């Protein structure tokens, strides 16, 4: 079964940095009582259900007759199946939360009863999650000289103009821009497919903003595919690619989005769209964002069947917080992009910063590579990025554990910069002669349950042996490490590291300052279980002793390593010789 976490193209190795691990969980995350309402949304007023294959609309009405506090608010198609959104009729709900909103949770009596309805195949609360664009402030009135990512003025450029010189401009490639509402008739976005665009925030076919200050989505689209040669604003990295606007964020400042909204957006026209650009994400300082069943299903389906079976490519911005602001992603930003793009009302916008505007550069470069070879699968693209990105122009300005290192396969990797700077020319040349990599193998270790206690300011290691007879993989691509630990308080004081048989040390969970400082929300003990995706070990041989290291850097916190295990993905031999 294709792992959901492998579908997302997390190696955003561009001029800034890389989201080296996607902190998504395959197992349920367990939280202390004091954290429950902060980490899980309690203001959701909808549930999503799918009937059994023989279900009818009459069955929906029959179900609603037994649950009068719900009403049918929407029927929609998702991945070929019919789903129904049932919403609370708030006029019939006497119980309200402290903040005055009505909410649902898994312990709701009607939801518990409804899960036993024989006609219902799937039921999930349509939970809300605050998402926002990953961007900084921007100045106006840009100059074309600001397009340093294109014009080669940097000592170590992306070599985009060199890729253009080879004849590749993104022609024939379709990019879905999932973002805030966008001006689809913008002067600089002549390659926008307006008829295929959609607004999932307002649930209509017009993704254009009514507010002229809503620039984020239009600017992201411009970085990818702004028209070349029209003497206006900017030039997109893949200026001949077709753009499709997928409105999801209602405002520049972000909105609370439901699971079903996000799942439909990332599946929009998956047979047509090659690459999805996602320059937004969750914001919570103390929370860990999880995926619901609908998004999991979407990613798995689109990896198998998207792009006519080659798999859709998803590029996500890493976020501008990291350990300082958001514990949900290992993504400290060291240098911000500064470039020019388009904005609403056919205007220009300069000084764009943040990982929001590194993601569309990566998308544009991938579009150039796909034009050179549209047979590339989503895994082929990841292999190309790893092989053609270079650690040029970056300095080791971080602590000793975040320096450039060579992994066991000889690849230079960095915990914040990934594999380095994306090179469009090298990507295109590599794509032209690329041969599809063989099928990905999967192997999972036994669960190790050491129950090792760590007192204040201490650390402990535990190992898992991967034997040659048990594991068929000899060339790693992705490693999933699932780790569960107890903490006495202040979860952010616990750090987790993974050490491969080759000796490569990877930071899974750094110390999180805000998470650690939240004494109010973390005054009680709890258990934390999470699955971390690692790409730093790409190309290594997994046979040997793997170690997990837990560290507590606090005089008031103790922890216990409960259990951990590995899931390895790769091939039986190096798929790329030479």
TrEMBL record:
GO biological process, one term: protein processing
PROSITE patterns for this protein: P_HOMO_B, SUBTILASE, SUBTILASE_HIS, SUBTILASE_SER
A GO term from the CC aspect: trans-Golgi network
Signal peptide: 1-18
Occurrences of domain P/Homo B (ranges): 436-574
InterPro entries named among the record's database cross-references: Galactose-bd-like_sf, P_dom, Peptidase_S8/S53_dom, Peptidase_S8/S53_dom_sf, Peptidase_S8_His-AS, Peptidase_S8_Ser-AS, Peptidase_S8_subtilisin-rel
MF term (GO), any: serine-type endopeptidase activity
Short name of one Pfam family: Peptidase_S8
Keyword tRNA-binding annotated: no
EC number(s) reported in the record: 3.4.21.75
Keyword set, alphabetical order: Cleavage on pair of basic residues, Hydrolase, Protease, Serine protease, Signal
UniProt-annotated catalytic positions: 179 (charge relay system), 216 (charge relay system), 356 (charge relay system)
Gene3D superfamilies noted in UniProt: Galactose-binding domain-like (2.60.120.260), Peptidase S8/S53 domain (3.40.50.200)
Family the UniProt entry places it in: Belongs to the peptidase S8 family.
Protein name as catalogued: Furin
Native source organism of the sequence: Mytilus galloprovincialis (Mediterranean mussel)
């Amino acid at each position: 079964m294709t792992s959901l976490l492998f579908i997302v193209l997390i190696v955003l190795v561009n001029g800034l940095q890389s989201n080296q691990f996607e902190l998504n969980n395959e197992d349920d995350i367990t939280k202390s009582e004091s954290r429950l309402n902060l980490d899980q949304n309690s203001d959701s007023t909808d549930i999503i259900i799918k009937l059994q294959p023989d279900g009818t609309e009459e069955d929906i009405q029959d179900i609603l007759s037994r649950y009068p506090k719900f009403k049918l608010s929407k029927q929609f198609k998702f991945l070929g199946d019919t789903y129904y959104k049932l919403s609370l009729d708030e006029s019939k709900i006497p119980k309200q939360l402290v903040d005055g909103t009505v909410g649902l949770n898994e312990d709701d009596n009607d939801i518990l009863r409804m899960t036993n309805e024989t006609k219902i195949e799937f039921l999930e609360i349509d939970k809300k999650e605050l998402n926002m664009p990953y961007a900084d402030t921007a100045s106006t009135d840009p100059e074309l000289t600001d397009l340093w990512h294109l014009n080669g003025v940097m000592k170590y450029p992306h070599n985009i103009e060199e890729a253009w010189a080879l004849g590749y401009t993104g022609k024939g490639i379709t990019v879905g821009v999932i973002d805030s509402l966008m001006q689809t008739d913008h002067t600089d976005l002549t390659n926008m497919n307006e008829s295929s665009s959609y607004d999932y925030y307002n649930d209509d076919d017009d993704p254009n903003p009514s507010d002229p200050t809503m620039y984020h989505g239009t600017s992201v689209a411009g970085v990818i595919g702004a028209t070349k040669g029209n003497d206006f604003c900017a030039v997109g990295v893949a200026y001949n690619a077709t753009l499709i606007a997928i409105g999801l964020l209602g405002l520049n400042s972000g909105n609370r989005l439901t699971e079903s909204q996000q799942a439909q957006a990332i599946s929009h026209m998956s047979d047509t769209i090659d690459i999805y650009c996602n320059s937004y994400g969750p914001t919570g300082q103390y929370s860990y964002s999880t995926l619901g069943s609908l998004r999991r299903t979407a990613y798995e389906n689109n990896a198998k069947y998207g792009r006519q079976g080659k798999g859709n490519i998803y590029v996500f911005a890493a976020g501008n917080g990291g350990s300082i602001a958001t514990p949900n992603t290992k993504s400290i930003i060291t240098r911000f992009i500064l470039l020019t793009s388009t904005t609403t009302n056919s205007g220009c916008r300069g000084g764009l910063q943040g990982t929001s505007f590194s993601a569309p550069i990566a998308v544009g470069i991938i579009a150039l590579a796909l034009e050179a070879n549209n047979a590339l699968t989503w895994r082929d693209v990841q292999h190309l990025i790893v092989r053609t990105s270079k650690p040029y122009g970056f300095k080791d300005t971080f602590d000793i554990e975040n320096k450039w290192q060579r992994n066991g396969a000889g690849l230079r990797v960095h915990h914040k910069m990934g594999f380095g700077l994306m090179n469009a020319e090298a990507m295109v040349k590599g794509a032209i002669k690329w041969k599809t990599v063989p099928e990905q193998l999967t192997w999972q270790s036994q669960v190790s349950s050491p129950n090792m206690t760590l007192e204040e300011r201490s650390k402990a290691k535990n190992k898992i042996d991967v034997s040659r007879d048990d594991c068929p993989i000899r060339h790693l691509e992705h490693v999933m490490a699932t780790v569960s630990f107890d903490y006495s308080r202040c979860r952010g004081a616990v750090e987790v590291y993974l050490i491969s048989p080759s000796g490569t040390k990877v930071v899974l969970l750094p110390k999180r300052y805000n998470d650690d400082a939240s004494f109010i929300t973390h005054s009680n003990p709890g258990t934390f279980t999470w699955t971390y995706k690692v790409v730093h070990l790409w190309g290594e041989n997994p046979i040997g002793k793997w170690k997990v290291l837990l560290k507590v850097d606090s005089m008031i916190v103790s922890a216990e390593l409960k259990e951990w295990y590995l899931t390895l993905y790769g091939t039986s031999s190096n798929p790329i010789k030479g």
